[in-house]
Amino acid sequence: MNMGFRHMKLQLLFLSFLLQIGCNTIKSDPDQKDTLTTVVSETSLVVLGTIQDAGSPHIACKKACCENLFEKSNPLRKVVSLGIIDPQNNKSFLFEATPDMTSQVKKLKQFSNSENELPDGIFLSHAHIGHYTGLMYLGKEATNANQVPVYAMPRMKNFLENNGPWSQLVSTNNIAIQEIANHKEIELTSNIKVIPFTVPHRDEFSETVGFKIIGPKKSVLFIPDIDKWEKWETDISEAISEVDFAFVDATFFDGEEINTRDISEIPHPFVIESMEHFKRLPSEEKQKIHFIHFNHTNPVLNSESEAYKTVINNGFNIAQIDMIISL
């Protein structure tokens, strides 16, 4: 056999071997975090995403915070979502149907070690793109799901039922909308209860709600989106005192990162404002607070940043994807 041909054949065989390895390897990028999933053994909350609606990298972003992310996907950058798992009753629930829902429901399945590919219910906080558009994956073009329960407030329910393409999910029974009400408790399983409550926000198409999630031993406050704390009729510090953990809106660290936008159009509480608001809380109350729902510009996404260190040094926490809390 011609030596040149033989050498080329060996190269092709080696390349084929490498491709087979690559196709069967979970982690293809050595710089990515190992995302092996822990199976929970008791009623638990898992953090499935921490980023603001439009994700990270952000569309059309030219800033340094995005420049490397377009070339390499980052498994830690998922839009804000929580999962609740009750192993005893073999049930799992998703909070928010995000654009990253395909990977988030898979991760929820892995955490719960369930045979079910889809959750037993999905809770929606409001009609902004990061919080409900993942429902599209339940339609004909994707899973063609069968009556997945979707928990929504009256205006949110009306929005889904009367606007395409969401109305098709209803008419073809891909989803079954369960109407929920302000401050009315929902018993999901013997171990899980949920109480929705309205919060002030840009309610163009629906109400905006936060959730109190109650487990057998612990409870959680989840407010991914809200206007300034002062606009809410409820005292946020009092609400935090009634739970064991609080995941709260931290879209922007301060006003400097959004100097190209009119802040009156996006009046989230800045992280620096929240820290000021909570500074007199006892340390055990501060430790309950986990900031979440970060815009792609938010410097706390970088654990080496001064902003991140400031939050931690002041006694607060920053939500991390794959975080597990026993309830």
What features would you describe in this structure?
With 327 residues, the chain is an alpha/beta fold. It is built from nine helices and 14 strands. It has helices spanning 3-23, 101-112, 129-132, 154-162, 166-171, 236-241, 271-278, 283-286, 306-313; strands at residues 44-49, 81-86, 91-95, 122-123, 148-152, 175-179, 186-187, 193-198, 209-214, 219-223, 245-249, 289-292, 317-318, 324-326. The strands form two sheets. Strands 6-5-4-3-2-1-14 form a seven-stranded mixed sheet. Strands 7-8-9-10-11-12-13 form a seven-stranded mixed sheet, covered by helices on one side. β9 and β10 (219-223) form a beta hairpin. It starts with a helix and ends with a strand.
